[in-house]
Glucosamine--fructose-6-phosphate aminotransferase (Isomerizing)
Amino acid sequence: DIFKSVLAKARDIKSKFDSLVEKVRADEIFVTGCGSSYYLAQVIASLFNHFLRIPTRAIPSSELFLYPDDYFTNSGTMVVGMSRSGDTTETVKALEMAKNKGLPTVALTCYEDSTIVKKADYAFISEEAKEESVVMTGSFSSMLLISYLMVADDANIIKLPELAKAYVEKFEDIARKIIQDNLIKTFVYLGSGPYYGLANESMLKVKEMSISNSEGYHTLEFRHGPKSIVDNNMLVTAFISDTATDYELKLLKEIKGYGAVTCAIGIGLTDEHADYPIAISKELDQWARLPLCIMLSQFIAYYNAVKKGINCDRPQHLDQVVKL
Ligand code: F1P
């Protein structure tokens, strides 16, 4: 339903973003946020680099806030701040600093009356995804879809709501099975390109929702050291891209050989690729299926929390909004 209501605004989002890009004429973009919103920024930086062809970097808001003079060195930079609440101190400060340097700023949040909306020159609001939970789930997917619609053609993603309905049950089933049938102590997520941000967000979901050890890597980086910790109590979930498919699947096979339980999600996957393969419809290319894929990780984190008797909506030590 969230996807449906965001897609209904597709044309407005695209034309608003097109006209601001035309007006601002940035030669560089920083996308910034904290926690899940920073990992969302990593995915969005990939989307912007691919579709917009303006060099874009994801930077944690705290870095911009603490080292402004080292980052804000180009008068052609536009700064896009992501924040579910719109009130996280570091993100507010990062946008304030960008403004003080005379740079154009954009806010993406779920709350119209939030601080970053008041500070930024332009704002995009995902009001359909306000959530009670401390942990970001629907808001992540919806802000991701809005960002996709800013830069890409909505025709490629029009089937998302329909396919999401079909896949939710499948994801839930597989996640439940993985957690029930195995003793997993470490959760590793691998992704290349836009899937790196998803791998990190998946890592954070397992940590926050189920208080478990988890890690996220660029897929092939895992070969350079991290693979030494693979054992029988590790679940390695790989987001398989349409670009580096063979390399990614070869690595996953190698990891399975070291004893890990493997799960993979991508086009055309079968039992020969992973213990738990999830074949995604060709109708959604690697960019259009991003908001769908993250739901698998949310279910894995959820069932792991249930197994451990943890309230995944209210994890220990965490607040919904972090203020300094
Ligand atoms: C970001 C965030 C969340 C995290 C935690 C605290 O908030 O760091 O990613 O799950 O609940 O807040 P926001 O800036 O997106 O509101």
